[in-house]
Design goal:
By secondary structure, this protein is of the alpha+beta class. The protein has helices at residues 17-20, 36-40, 58-71, 79-96, 150-153, 167-178, 222-233, 245-249, 278-289, and strands at 2-9, 21-24, 43-51, 54-55, 99-107, 118-125, 137-143, 183-187, 200-205, 208-211, 238-240, 253-258, 262-269, 272-273. The structure holds pyridoxal-5'-phosphate (PLP). Residues 195, 197-200, 219, 221-224, 257-259 line the site of pyridoxal-5'-phosphate.
Amino acid sequence: MHPLTLHRLDLGTDAEPAAALTRVDPRKALLTATDLSATRGDGIFETVVVVDGVPQALEPHLDRFERSAAMLDLPAPRRELWRGAVLAAAEELRRHTPRGAVKFVLSRGDEANTASATGWALGFAPDTRAGDGAPELDVVLLDRGYRHDVAQTSPWLLQGAKTLSYAVNMAALREARRRGAHDVIFTSIDGFVLEGPHSTVVARVDGVYVTPPTDLGLLPGTTQADVFAALTGWGEAVATRRVDVAELRDADAVWLCSSTRGAAPVRSLDGAAVVVDAEVTASLNEALDARKA
Ligand code: PLP
């Protein structure tokens, strides 16, 4: 990633967004060494793609940010402030790149000064860009080690919240590379398809586009939601339901959907070839690129 813009948010004020945002140098230090985001991964984030200065699916990202904050007992984000921060970053990004992204972060704060949470919005140019043509992915299935009902039995594990604690997800991606693959689909210990470390799974099973439900402890994917909206608009059948591993291996086609990469087609699962539907992939990414906030 190439950092391009950075705004610090003053979370302790009711001031208008413009007055609560401070523009800072994206290459300079922003945090203390005792910030809980750094010392414990204790916070939440979102990454929004910006096409020609327009943040895509901004409101669904803000919805999910609020949902994550509630799951972590963080102070409820002041929506207009966070929206203002993303819009300010997006406006600046327009001058640098036709396709950028804004990562906005809410940390529980500084553990040496428990007074207030910390927030910032970083505008950057991502390394992988859906508009460059979606990459075809070799994917491995990895056991997440939880049952499909972990979100109900053990909510303190925060499955389904977009927390800053991504070390496990990054370790899974390294395991994929060790196995000669690009990416991962997590499965539950009892055989259900979950999600990728940074993506939502969409599969076409017997002509129906399916995605697993979020009550399996999954992030509600903003890209998957817009993929389903596009498919529905074209008269295709979609369903949100449990998918077991055998069904995934037999699927007609599989995609990993995420903000930064769009709908990326899977070309192999654990080394077995999966058919890539290039036509549907291209149409989906065109529809995603045409989104508005
Ligand atoms: N699931 C996980 C665990 C993720 O980290 C992400 C995105 O980073 C997604 C799904 C896809 O979400 P979105 O399409 O909103 O980017």
